[in-house]
Every structure is written in C-alpha cells, then in structure tokens.
Amino acid sequence: MATHTPTASRRRWGSTVAGVIVLCVMLFPLYWMLNTALQPEAGLLQVDPVPGTLDLSGFSQAISDQGGHLLTSLAVSLGAVVICLAVAAPAAYGLARFGLRGSRTIVFGTLITQMVPGIVIANALYNSYVDLGLVNSYFGLMLADASLGIPFSIVLMRSFMVSIPGEVIEAAQMDGAGPVRTFVRVVLPMSRNSLITSGLFAFLFSWSDFMFALTLNTTDDVKPITLGIYQYIGAHVGDWGSVMAASVLSAVPAAVLLVLAQKYIAAGITGGSVK
Amino acid sequence: MTTSTVTAQAPVTASPASTAPDPARLRRRRRLAQWGFVAPAVVFMLLFFGYPLVRNVVMSFQHYTPKTFFTGEAPFNGTDNWSNVFQDALFGKALWHTLVFTAGSLLGQFCIGLALAVFFSRRFPLGGALRSLILLPWLVPMVVSGIVWRRILDQDTGVLNSFLDTLGLGGHTPWLTSPHMALLSVVLVNIWIGIPFNMVILYGGLQEIPKELYEAASLDGASAWRTFRSITLPMLKPVITVVLVLGFMSTVKILDLILALTDGGPADSTQTLGTLTYQNSFVQLDFGAGAVVGNVLILISAVFAVFYLRANRTEGK
C-alpha cells in the first residue's frame, strides 16, 4: 500500500527481531529436548549447548524401546478420531438444524462437560471398565480418548452447520433425499473444514492423553507413548538421551500438523473455545 | 473413511412413498429419525460424563480395599471416607496447593499471553509465522513437556542452573528438589505451557475491536497506556472472561504435568487435589477416598461455573 519511510520500516523490522527473541525463549525447552536427544553419551552429565557430532544412537535406542508404543498411540488416536467424528458429526447436524426439543439443554450439557475433571471420570470409569472387561483393551482406551474430543467437536461443527444455507438442504430434500442421504451427500461435504479441524483436535487430544492411559491400563498390553515415556524416566534415569529422543518422536505429530494444517489449528483454538 | 462410519451409525429411515401413510405417523417417524442423529452423542456423554459424576458420589460412601477387585465387594461405610479425608492434614495442604497453583498459573499465563497478543497485533514482517510457531509448546503432550523441564531444572546438571551460574546468579537452586521451591517451579512451567493458548485467543479478540476506536483515540491524543486501559481492556472483556474460565477449568484439575515433574513431591509439597485423587484411588487403591477428593474438585469447578454463568447473564442485560 503506502510506501513506508525508512524509520517506519526499521521499526517494523525491530518488531520482527523482538518477535524472534520471544519465539526463541518460548521454544528453548523444545530445542533443549532435541539437543539432549542428540547427545546420548552425556547421560546424567551436563549437555553442551549444541551437539558436537550427529549421534543418533539415542534415537535408535528410543525407537527400539518405544517404537511399539508410538504405534499404539497412533492406532488408539486414529480409532478415537473415528469414534469421535462418527458420534459428533451427526449430533452437531441434528442440534444445528432439526430444532428438536431439548437441543438447548444438550448444547449446554456439552459445554458443561468441560468442567468435569478427567481424574474424576477415570476414577469411576476404571471400576466400570473392570466389570465390562475393557481394562487393558485398545477399544476401551479409544472410547475414553474419544470422550476428550466429542464435546469440542460437537460445539465446533454445530456452530459451522448452523451457517449452512437452508435452501441447500431443502433442495436436497426436494430431490427426495432422506435425512441420512442429505447429511452424507450435502452436509458433510460442505462441512469439510470443520470436520478436518475436529478430527485434528480429536487426534491431538488423544495423542497427548496420559491420564486414561495411566489409569485404565494395568498391564503393558496397551501402552501409548505418553505412558511409555513416563515409565521410561523411572527405569532409565541415567539415560536422558534416549528419553529425550523418545520425547522428540512423541512431539513430531504436533509439529507436523502445526506446519501442514496451520489454518485448521488456528480455527479450532478460537472456534472451539469462544463460541 | 469417516463418512462410511457415520452412515453405519445413523438409523435407516427411507420410507416407502408408494402407500401414502397418514401425515401424523410420517411426522413421528421423521422426528424419530432426527433423534437418531443426536442420540448416540447424548448416550455417549451420559456414559462418559454424567455417569462418572453420579458414580463418584456413590463411591465416596463405599469402602474400597485392594481386595475389592477380586471379591467385588465395596460395602457402604457412611461418611467414613469423608471424615478420614478431611482429618488428613494432606487434604488441606493439597487444597491450598491447588489454589496457589491455579491462581499463579492463570495470572502468569494471562498477563504474558495478553502482552504477546498486543505485541503480535502490530503488523511486521514474519509476524504471522512467528505467532503460529509459538503454538508448538501447547501442542506437545503435557507429560512430555513436564519431562523435558525436569531435565532443564535439574539442580546439578540442568541447563537453567548452569545458565544462571554463568551470569553469576547463584546457579544451585534446587528447583524441583526443595519443598520450598517445587510448587513455584511447577507454576512457572505451567505458565510456559499456557502462554500460547492465552495468546491465540486474546489475539483473536483483539482483531475484533473496531479500528475506528483506536483512530478516534489517537485523534484525541490519548497515550498508549490510556488507549489500552480505556479501549482495549473494556472491549476485550468477554474474551478475557472466556480465557480465564477455560484456563481455570483446565488448570484446577491438572495431573499430567505434576506427575511428570515431581510426582507430587518432594514431601508432598506439590500435591494437589488432582494428584491426591490419583494417589488415593490408583496408588493406595482406596477408591472411596479418591472419590471424596474428586467430589471436592468437582464442587470447586461447579461453584466457579455458577459464578461465571451469573456474571455472563448480568452482562447480557
């Protein structure tokens, strides 16, 4: 637009420098995680500010110890995403468009669920899971992890589906489509973005879950990476290189998603909380 | 992939139109089909949020022992669990730690988050990219952040102490190993975790404030601080409420971070209501006592939620 005077432009770049400094401070712990992971020989000693050589033995140790747990996390998180979207998407549509009696109460209840502490849920859930034989099962953990994303997804998708023009849905019904067909053929494709955002967050919530992994598993059968790392520090106190390498690996999905799906993440944080 | 699951879940409703059915029945069938969309979610939330609330109240009046899971017996024992928990000095300590932890975390996260939101509202090269990269700490699993900080804060070999040492500022602070320091350290780490979330939401709120207000203020010659106090803060109030309420809800119940950093120690100095619930139930296997502490935790959240809703209502008028 307007041409800036040299001082104004210098001030703008000054802000960039300040911003870079802020970012460096905020991301320093993550840098240190990577740095420590690349110096496995340091063990319990101080690590250098930058790795001298590219020593990947910490990573290979972490993959052989924790690789299976990473796969468990992936499987559980994908399962949780499927359950979450399968439950939340139809509900969001129903609450947005059908004008059912009690819709307001349900939406209010959905918001209130954020108030219930996870450990309280785990406390009761563990006992029911024991009775139902769901302790130490993939499906049990998927269900519990799906509960982390469902309220969020309902709120997010509902606020989007409210804004779909009524004519589009009526047109589909004129053509003889029932509610299911209208939903699958018209509503879901139009809600693609909010569906992706919900799925992404459901994945991240589940991937980060530690509480359900810790409380709903008593054996090593189903051990996601968060639980794996937590128990790793108990057992491998002297081997910080491998612990940090495993930590880096567990942070990879978040980093990848942040880069590839930035606009969905930003939409999710603001949309899911402010609405 | 997801679409097919959705179809499988939804009920089959295609009605044959050949024999014109009466409209009342048709309407009822349509209503039923519509409830089919909502019902799975309602059932799910009742099972995973409603039921645990009720069950925790019941459990708090039951006597659980490690044997319970073999015998299935947890006899009712009146208010024994409640009086045991309330008489335990640890409960009072955990309650106090929870309040300090929550208040300290929120204050730090909010102030720094707001400062950064204001800062990033200026237009400058690479601003958008830097702003979105700051989100990274928030997206890393909280246990993992806790473990990384545990290494950084190590008294003898952690990088923070060696950095302070280089600056000549002591450098032997027992961040996590001293009962006097540990709670403060946990709060500081949690502030670091919460800054991105606060910043993003507050930044979003700042963008909604009409630019004309600022132009008018600058025409009137208002100082930057005056503009911030008289325009930014009042206009941002609804968003501030949301940030603080969501922050409170997620902070008061925190468990992951404390377990990863200190396991509630040293000498129970970082034990909170969340960790105490976990300890009682899943370490001591006294689910009755765990349920009592959990109920107190819910009660605190509920009281807060009522205040929040009331404040919202009066504001709406």
Automatic annotation (TrEMBL), chain A:
List all membrane-crossing ranges: 12-34, 70-93, 105-126, 138-157, 195-214, 240-261
The domain of life is Bacteria
Q: How does it sit in the membrane?
A: Multi-pass membrane protein
One family from Pfam that matches here is BPD_transp_1
InterPro entries referenced in this protein's UniProt entry, alphabetically: BP-dep_ABC_trans_perm (IPR050901), MetI-like (IPR000515), MetI-like_sf (IPR035906)
Keyword terms, alphabetized: Cell membrane, Membrane, Transmembrane, Transmembrane helix, Transport
Q: Where in the cell is it found?
A: Cell membrane
Q: Which family does it belong to?
A: Belongs to the binding-protein-dependent transport system permease family.
Protein name as annotated: Carbohydrate ABC transporter permease
- Identify the species of origin: Streptomyces viridiviolaceus
UniProtKB/TrEMBL annotation, chain B:
Q: Where is the signal peptide?
A: none
Q: SUPFAM superfamilies from the xrefs?
A: MetI-like
- The principal localisation class reads membrane
**Where in the numbering of this chain does the ABC transmembrane type-1 domain appear?**
95-308
Q: Does the keyword Hydrolase apply?
A: no
Q: Which UniProt keywords apply?
A: Cell membrane, Membrane, Transmembrane, Transmembrane helix, Transport
Any Pfam family hit: BPD_transp_1
- What parts of the sequence cross the membrane? 35-54, 94-120, 132-152, 181-203, 239-262, 282-309
> How is this protein situated with respect to the membrane?
Multi-pass membrane protein
Q: Give the superkingdom in one word.
A: Bacteria
Q: What PROSITE patterns does the record point to?
A: ABC_TM1 (PS50928)
Which CDD domains does the record cross-reference, listed alphabetically?
Answer: TM_PBP2
Protein location: Cell membrane
| Positions of region (Disordered) | 1-23
**Sequence similarity:** Belongs to the binding-protein-dependent transport system permease family.
PANTHER family, alphabetized: BLR7065 PROTEIN, SPERMIDINE_PUTRESCINE TRANSPORT SYSTEM PERMEASE PROTEIN
The name on file for this protein is Carbohydrate ABC transporter permease
